[in-house]
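Quick one:
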Amino acid sequence: MLQITTLALASLLLQGPSLVSPSPKERLAAVDQMARPGNTEAIPLLTVALKKEPKVEVRAEMLAGLVRIGGPDVPPVLAMSLATDLDKDIRIQAIESIQRLYIPAPDTGTIQTIFNRVKGVIAQPDRPPLPNGMVVDKVSKDALAMAMQKDFNEEVRASAARALGSLMAKDYVPVMISTLEDPQNQDHKVVRREIIESLGVIRDPAAGPALQKNLSDRDSGIMKSAILAIGLMGYQDARPQLDAIYHSDKRQDMKEQALESLAMLRDPRTKPLFESLISSSNDFYREKAAEGLARTDYDGTGFIEALKNERKANVRTAMAFALVSSNHNDYINELANALNSRQGDQAETYIFELGKYKGKVPELNGYLRSADPKVRARMARILGQIGDASSRAPLDELTKDPNTDVMREAVNALRQMNSR
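Output:
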């Protein structure tokens, strides 16, 4: 930890608003003034003030301000607050701040805390991805793992479990499994569910057997999370149980979740099921049939005629995915156009898979010159996540794009590629 001399401390206290002012507003102003990127000299001062600060809102501002400063001296301070602060909201802010060290938020010009915005990263339903190549330090992960196991507030424990998933803490999977299986956590459903979902995000097959035990959980939320997590990690040993849920469970939402998970397994043994659903009257079933077959090296030629007659956009997008997966590259255009539609997220998932696992990056690079700025922006984001060197030059051109969204996505994509 950085040290601060008495003289330096006095000097900092006399510069404008003070952290020892009797006015909370002045103390907040002092934090805002000190929390500048790279201003590491302020870390010891904020650390001392944090331990003495009586106001929750000011302590939260200090934690968020430390993230803005950044540097290796910040994680121990955040870990300290997570372990010792008596206020539940501050411990949640510490978790939020730990994540923001590694998953930066857009700079709004003001310090953002859980108190002055609608949702933080820990509350978002779709987790922002950890940038490729980002290394999370052990201090942060240890603090989160301890909070997940030992904190006396369930919301804090659940938030810590979620954060371990968002930060892709694969080396902490054994701890997450042991916490999930601890009999004392049986009634802590929120914590268990967040652990299950995080294991699905991390996608370590070692967690497969533990997740499989939850496929028959009495709580429907736990069961659905386990079904989806198994699909995400492609744990094929659970296929018979997923198949049984699809065929035998009377709950429609559970059947659909099982079918979605089966479509992610990439298991050739699912082909007969998906072939039987290609002509289903159920739109969701047709979509998952095409998606599942696309991931099993299926010859998608039969989808050419089906696509001509299909009216549902979600099914059309899945059929185009199946066709491109079987090297009918003319249908990439259908997927690219879908990026600027209600099927944008669906198309983005498919396009990433095609580039990452099917060798389609050369074809995708061409869409960085699309006339549609939405397509250019989303394609830049996808290609940055894939990280193929052939995308570097066309992405560099987009850093001069007149559309600010496109330019920003191109810059972020190159930053991701450079961090590898």
